């Protein structure tokens, strides 16, 4: 065949395979989203439309790879997808996995944009980078997810204070300086005393981030013969907002990580 | 800080760095495009609108990474981007590079769709996988590009025969069987004798694929003082269709790979 | 400094790090030992002196890396060293670990040769290659060790039959052919009926391979004051020969893999 | 087969392949040689016996892998082996290559010890770590070798000054402090003025390190018929001491790196 003289160049390709029997986390991350968010006038510090759009993109990714993704967690412009320990997706080839996830997320972002921002034109299509990380134990994976949720909390508390201060007339530099020495409790107090905000009453979506997984949900169906309505519990893919650092969530949903409850 | 207890999980991350002083090729590839193309009724074997859209996405990627990408070659549902030997893009981190390219390509595909398919709604957003390959010498890189252009030729000739046979009433299985034993010259002859097609007269875009690079172009500018028009040669990013297997193109454009001409 | 102009070449170096929190197995393997063994007239199928030498080399490696190696298993010309999940040895850099193990094993092989082969000069120094493999769970690690011990058993049974047949006058080709269709029980029967050998009575070192780990051992010490002898149990590094496929060994020695017993 | 249930553990193995068409440098390095050298009372700053032993080990490695190794350079307790761009050794598997080199070097070190240190018993067998680095161009490779030879020069000049100062009665701390601010020319002057040493007259082996490669050598052979002696030039593996930073050596030996001279 005419092409065969050149085919030796395929030998330069290499496929990194993710270690077997490890949890795989694929974290997708908006590229230069700081700027993207400014260009599109997102509400600060949290724009519910933007987060809903992120969640919808993540849901699409979860559905597309429903055999593999068992859990997803999103905050800000990032989303982490947890693939089951024994996933055979693309034979665990790292490059295939991360590029498929990042590109599907990005193309959905553009595709779904107008549903969440009906009055605002998308000025340019964004990019999302992605990486895959292997975690050998469920404890390591839980710690990863805790790390992201703690990060969400820390950033959100900070950002809320920051934007309230800026709204109230402080310059950005002043706000930064003011917050630079504060602890969590100081920020809670500042919000309460100065702005009358009880942080604990802020929406869970903002404070906890978004979780996508199959949870038990009541499903009501009419029995075709008797006409009676029956309610059954089924596991359904849902976006939920709750704490995943403590054990409660995982004890209530032992099927997700397949742990003995 | 509250998150610090979990931060050890970052140690599980690893960054593969692409070998220094090698040409880097990032090849982006449509995922399951066979099916995508059917769903959207692309013209077989080549849909100019689809190829133009691919080219426009690639152009956007080239502009976004204009410091690094020195050449791009596309055919069918794939595009290869050549990064300069000394690129510092993302410190040559493989995962960052391939996910940024694949996701930017994919988001542009959706963003630009309606410009090329004004009458056809995009049914679902596609994914593109990507890989990066290092080539130590310019000869290896040229052979890579020759491999892809030879592949384009081989596939295009085959596909043209195949679809002409199907159009003419053969079943798909018959067409496949008929072509399975043919050489290039047989296919040329079949096209000419049976369908009156001179393959050499088919559009270069189909036969050669698409090339994106800076080529010398005449640029005419009116002198503000004298009002006279002046034509100067400038290197401009363009899509061109031509042979890149032979030396001619590279001798005429020695700046692309920075070879001594 | 004079050298600085060239120091950029260090950027081409890369360090692959073994995934955290995984068991690491370093398997050292004699290079072309078939030939080495022939050159030095080893007794077939098992030369106790050769195996004792392997064990002594492995012991030296275990002592040299006593903080990290928790278990070692040897058979024939190979030795597997198990590093603890949390080992920080050379910051888990793969190249450092495998080359240190292989070279220390090889240099000890030469150094200790004359102790085990006092009447036989070493004709040439051997090489040992090595590889590192990560195992995320204790189950995977146990299965790895079972795989090696099963391999030891299978090879040893085969080799015993083979060499007995050759001793008895069969050609090597005849012996091979005769054994090619036999199952384990056939081989046991052949040994018993034809050569009066009860395989189960063969030395455990040959049938089970060699294990190096800390086991509970009685240690007797004279009390300096009272002059009375006291016996205490202590964990001591030992070579033992026993089954490690079943649970018994691991239940008796839960400290090795730090499992809850 | 009995073992098959466990064989899945092989899937956890991975083979990193060194990039094709790159020069491969395998650098072997004595582990904790500072201490080893003290234990064996090596002469400071250079012990010719020790360097000769290193060279002999390297020669053995070169002979063992004569198809692949085209050049070797040694200084102090390290040796760099250059493998040809197109070497197929172990299918370019990194782990196989570096462990074979490190272990063969180490086993030879013990094997050959008594030839170079006939009056001194080897107290313990040393380990050598190793790494492999890919260099895409001959320029990169030449710069690597220049880097090592510059390093040799810098260290040797420093060490000579240091040990002369210590011999002359300075404490180690004083010597270190005294040298910490000196440039090359200061050290040359110190040697000359204080110790009457012209550094340029020091043995080339110490100042330049050791090179192993095939060089043109006269070979005299008696013609069997005529009884006349004939001298012919042949390329023979030799240890030589000379500058490899400048172009002279490489111009005189263009066959080594297969460059057009």
Quick summary:
Chain A is an alpha+beta fold and 261 residues long. The first copy, chain A, has helices at 33-39, 48-64, 94-116, 138-167, 172-180, 184-195, 204-208, 248-252, 254-257; strands at 23-30, 69-75, 78-83, 128-135, 210-222, 229-240.
Characterization of the model:
The structure is a homotetramer of 261-residue chains. The relative contact order of chain A is 0.15. The N and C termini of chain A lie far apart (59 Å). In chain A, strands 4-1-3-2-5-6 form a six-stranded antiparallel beta sheet, sandwiched between helices. The model of chain A has no long low-confidence stretch (mean pLDDT 95). In chain A, a hairpin with a 6-residue loop joins strand 5 (210-222) and strand 6. Chain A has a single domain (14-207), classed as tRNA(His) guanylyltransferase (Thg1) (Alpha-Beta Plaits, 2-Layer Sandwich), CATH 3.30.70.3000. Chain A has 261 residues and is an alpha+beta fold. Chain A has helices at 33-39, 48-64, 94-116, 138-167, 172-180, 184-195, 204-208, 248-252, 254-257, and strands at residues 23-30, 69-75, 78-83, 128-135, 210-222, 229-240. Chain A is built from nine helices and six strands, in the order E-H-H-E-E-H-E-H-H-H-H-E-E-H-H. In chain A, helix 2 (48-64) packs across helix 3, helix 4 (138-167) crosses helix 5 and helix 4 runs parallel beside helix 6 (184-195). Chains in contact: A-B, A-C, A-D, B-C, B-D, C-D.
Can you tell me the residue ranges of chain A where pLDDT is under 50 for at least 5 consecutive residues? none
Q: CATH topology of chain A, anyone?
A: Alpha-Beta Plaits
Anisotropy-based shape of chain A: globular
| Element pattern of chain A in H and E | EHHEEHEHHHHEEHH
Give the CATH class of chain A.
Alpha Beta
Q: What is the CATH-assigned architecture of chain A?
A: 2-Layer Sandwich
User: Quaternary state, please?
Assistant: homotetramer
Enumerate how many helices of chain A there are, as a single number.
9
User: Per DSSP, what share of the residues of chain A sits in E-state strands of 2 or more residues?
Assistant: 15-25%
What is the fourth-level CATH superfamily of chain A? tRNA(His) guanylyltransferase (Thg1)
For the biggest sheet of chain A, the summary is:
6 strands, antiparallel
Q: Using DSSP, what is the number of strands of chain A?
A: 6
Measure the end-to-end span of chain A.
59 Å
Largest interface: A-B, 56 and 56 residues
- How many structurally independent domains of chain A? 1
Helix content of chain A: 40-55%
């Amino acid at each position: 065949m005419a092409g065969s003289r050149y085919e030796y160049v395929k030998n330069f390709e290499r496929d990194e395979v993710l270690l077997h029997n490890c949890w795989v986390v694929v974290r997708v991350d908006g590229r230069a989203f700081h700027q993207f968010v400014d260009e599109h006038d997102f509400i600060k510090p949290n724009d519910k439309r933007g987060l809903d759009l992120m969640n919808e993109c993540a849901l699409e990714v979860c559905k597309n790879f429903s055999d593999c993704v068992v859990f997803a967690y999103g905050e800000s412009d990032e989303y982490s997808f947890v693939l089951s320990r024994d996933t055979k997706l693309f034979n665990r080839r790292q490059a295939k996995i991360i590029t498929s996830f990042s590109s599907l997320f990005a193309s959905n972002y553009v595709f779904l944009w107008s549903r969440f921002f009906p009055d605002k034109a998308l000025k340019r299509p964004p990019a999302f980078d992605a990486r895959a990380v292997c975690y050998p134990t469920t404890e390591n994976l839980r710690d990863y997810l805790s790390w992201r949720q703690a990060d969400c909390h820390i950033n959100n508390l900070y950002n809320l204070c920051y934007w309230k201060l800026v709204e109230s007339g402080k310059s950005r530099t002043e706000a930064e300086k003011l917050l630079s020495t504060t602890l969590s409790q100081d920020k809670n107090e500042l919000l309460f005393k100065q702005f009358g905000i009880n942080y604990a009453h802020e929406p869970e979506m903002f404070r906890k981030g978004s979780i996508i997984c199959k949870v038990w949900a009541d499903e009501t169906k009419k029995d075709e013969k008797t006409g009676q309505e029956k309610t059954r519990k089924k596991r359904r893919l849902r976006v939920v907002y709750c704490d995943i650092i403590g054990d409660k969530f995982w004890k209530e949903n032992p099927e997700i990580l397949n742990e003995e409850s």
